[in-house]
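To illustrate the input format used throughout this study, we show a single complete record. The first block contains the structure-token representation of the backbone; no residue identities are included at this stage. The design step must infer an amino acid for every position from geometry alone.
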């Protein structure tokens, strides 16, 4: 009886291991597709979303590796990577908003001054006070 349970567990572990490897391969292909979108994206918003998706997929890959290798410390690394990825996307978005505002102001400085005068309460699109 005990030998049969051991064989079942061993078979189940092999199935899980194969499934984890298959998931990692699929995620690697999707990560490569996001990398292409981040490089070729027609708009900057597409690039920012692709970078965010890449960060999320890397976190999932680290979590799957944690399950595959049975190492709990990888989950801690995954959480740290989530924080770094969030901060990176936030900074990239903020830089893009600043560049967009500068371009808009350079193209039409009169309209920008009028909108600033009409918006005295400080709740403009950029969040500047």
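Output of the design step:
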């Amino acid at each position: 009886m005990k030998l049969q349970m051991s064989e079942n567990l061993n078979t189940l572990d092999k199935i899980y291991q194969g499934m984890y490897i298959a998931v990692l391969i699929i995620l690697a292909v999707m990560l490569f597709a996001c990398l292409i979108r981040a490089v070729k994206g027609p708009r900057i918003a597409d690039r920012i979303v692709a970078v965010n998706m890449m960060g999320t997929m890397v976190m999932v890959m680290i979590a799957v590796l944690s399950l595959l290798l049975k190492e709990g410390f990888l989950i801690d690394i995954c959480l740290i990577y989530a924080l770094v990825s969030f901060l990176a996307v936030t900074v990239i978005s903020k830089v893009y908003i600043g560049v967009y505002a500068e371009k808009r102001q350079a193209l039409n400085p009169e309209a920008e001054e009028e909108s600033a005068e009409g918006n005295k309460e400080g709740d403009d699109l950029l969040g500047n006070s």
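Structural context for interpreting the output: The chain has a mean pLDDT of 85. The chain has four helices and no strands.
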